[in-house]
């Protein structure tokens, strides 16, 4: 199984699910170059993944899914990334929709919802999961073009009450499978709320009145993700297609193992799969092709030896970060507190994607001028992996946030309150001249 290159200790059940992924890879690989050239998601891939049962990969069996976990998702997006990174990325975002079902159900079990709230929360969560298991493609729309200085995602799309449901207005700038997915799972802010307590989730049918596609996204890489985004102008969503319990969104997030909804590392697996593919291609090409005068492989030249050595180091670096994060977020019982897992991911995402980009850069250099083609394996990988540097959040932001976490914690250690006995001692008259360093007065 291709996914075993990342998840090395698969169980028998995980291998069975991974076999479904491997079965679709030839079709994904065959369509990848043309999809990149056209900047269009291959329409046939929806049916292909649906027939393989993969749209319900991480849905529990009780809801009709395959019963996979984060380990399965990471293995799947990694394997797809070796064949068609664009499809892998779009597939990742479909699977993130499962969090809108799994996390609310966990929050119910944890007692985070009142008795009067549970029926609505459970009904919506189960609808998410059963639809995915039935082969419905869900595009998960949260990101917007409006940005704030203090948050990765700022929600300005609004939902206002009307008879029997809600009216949505806004624009979503990022979300794969625009015009492809059956539903856009859309995050919006309830009218009258100014905090995350007012965030709600809505099923928006692809062809609903008032839904339109933004201008075509002519991306540098990951071009076949159908990442155009949508506009919502007075879109009506009935009550039973929405989760509008105030605070439901923030309460469900408390149940995730890592950052945000807890499956973000699978996006880094896409890039690692892409890096592995361009690495394999480079090794095969440079060892097969030989110098005309010596007959020795191109790979034997000192320059190529240096390039291959550095590519290998960077690829192994990506694997180390990714496997460690996967272990942190999937081990039972949890090895580290959630805040530490979050901190590790803020470092890990950028570390993985930067390393993967360096692999592609090495492959691009190793191929020389003749290999520097837009549609070549190295050229596509270089463009696709460049997107990893900016998608979700850049490495620089992750390192900044980790530095703030670390230094804030240290600052808190430096300042504390003294027990009452210490205060009494300090206020008592001094018995005589003090001795010691003058620094004690500082």
From TrEMBL:
Organism, as annotated: Planobispora longispora
Annotated signal peptide: none
Family label: Belongs to the DszC flavin monooxygenase family.
Span list, region Disordered: 416-442
EC top class named in words: oxidoreductase
Keyword entries, A-Z: Flavoprotein, FMN, Monooxygenase, Nucleotide-binding, Oxidoreductase
Catalytic activity: dibenzothiophene + FMNH2 + O2 = dibenzothiophene 5-oxide + FMN + H2O + H(+); dibenzothiophene + 2 FMNH2 + 2 O2 = dibenzothiophene 5,5-dioxide + 2 FMN + 2 H2O + 2 H(+); dibenzothiophene 5-oxide + FMNH2 + O2 = dibenzothiophene 5,5-dioxide + FMN + H2O + H(+)
Domain (Acyl-CoA dehydrogenase C-terminal) ranges: 265-386
Residue ranges of every copy of the Acyl-CoA oxidase/dehydrogenase middle domain listed in the record: 143-232
Enzyme Commission number(s) from the entry: 1.14.14.21
GO cellular component, one term: cytoplasm
Pathway entry: Sulfur metabolism; dibenzothiophene degradation
Subcellular location: Cytoplasm
Gene Ontology molecular functions: acyl-CoA dehydrogenase activity; flavin adenine dinucleotide binding; monooxygenase activity
Protein name per Swiss-Prot or TrEMBL: Dibenzothiophene monooxygenase
InterPro entries: Acyl-CoA_DH_C, Acyl-CoA_Oxase/DH_mid-dom, Acyl-CoA_Oxase/DH_mid-dom_sf, AcylCo_DH-like_C, AcylCoA_DH/ox_N, AcylCoA_DH/ox_N_sf, AcylCoA_DH/oxidase_NM_dom_sf
């Amino acid at each position: 199984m291709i996914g075993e290159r990342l998840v090395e200790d698969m169980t028998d059940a995980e291998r069975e699910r991974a076999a479904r992924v491997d079965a679709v890879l030839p079709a994904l690989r065959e369509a990848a170059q043309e999809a990149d050239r056209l900047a269009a998601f291959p329409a046939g891939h929806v049916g292909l993944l649906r027939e393989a049962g993969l749209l319900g990969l991480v849905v529990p069996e009780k809801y009709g899914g395959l019963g996979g976990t984060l380990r399965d998702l990471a293995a799947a997006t990694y394997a797809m990334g070796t064949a068609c990174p664009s499809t892998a990325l779009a597939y990742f975002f479909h699977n993130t929709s499962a969090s809108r079902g799994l996390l609310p159900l966990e929050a119910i079990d944890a007692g985070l919802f009142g008795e009067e709230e549970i029926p609505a929360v459970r009904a919506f969560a189960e609808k998410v999961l059963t639809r995915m298991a039935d082969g419905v493609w869900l595009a998960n729309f949260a990101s917007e073009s409006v940005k704030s200085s203090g948050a990765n995602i700022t929600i300005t799309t609004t939902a206002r009450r009307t008879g029997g449901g809600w009216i949505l207005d806004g624009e979503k700038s990022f979300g794969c499978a625009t015009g492809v997915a059956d539903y856009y799972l859309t995050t919006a802010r309830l009218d009258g709320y100014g905090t995350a307590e007012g965030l709600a989730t809505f099923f928006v049918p692809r062809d609903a009145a008032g839904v339109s596609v933004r201008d075509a996204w002519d991306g540098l890489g990951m071009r076949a993700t159908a990442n155009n985004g949508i506009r919502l102008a007075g879109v009506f969503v009935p009550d039973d297609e929405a989760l509008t319990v105030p605070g439901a969104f923030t309460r469900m997030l408390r149940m995730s193992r890592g950052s945000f909804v807890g499956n973000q590392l699978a996006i880094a697996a896409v890039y690692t799969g892409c890096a592995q593919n361009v690495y394999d291609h480079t090794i095969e090409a440079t060892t097969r092709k030989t110098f005309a005068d010596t007959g020795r492989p191109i790979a034997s030249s000192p320059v190529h030896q240096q390039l291959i050595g550095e590519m290998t180091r960077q690829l192994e670096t990506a694997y180390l970060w990714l496997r460690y994060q996967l272990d942190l977020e999937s081990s039972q019982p949890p090895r580290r507190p959630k805040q530490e897992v979050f901190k590790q991911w803020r470092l890990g995402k950028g570390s993985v994607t930067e390393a993967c980009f360096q692999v592609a850069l090495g492959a691009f250099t190793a191929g020389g001028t003749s290999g520097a083609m837009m549609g070549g394996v190295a050229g596509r990988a270089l463009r696709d992996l460049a997107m990893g540097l900016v998608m979700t959040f850049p490495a620089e932001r992750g390192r900044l946030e980790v530095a703030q976490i670390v230094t804030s914690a240290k600052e808190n250690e430096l300042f504390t309150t003294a027990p009452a006995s210490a205060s009494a001692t300090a206020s008592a008259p001094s018995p005589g001249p003090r001795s010691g360093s003058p620094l004690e007065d500082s």
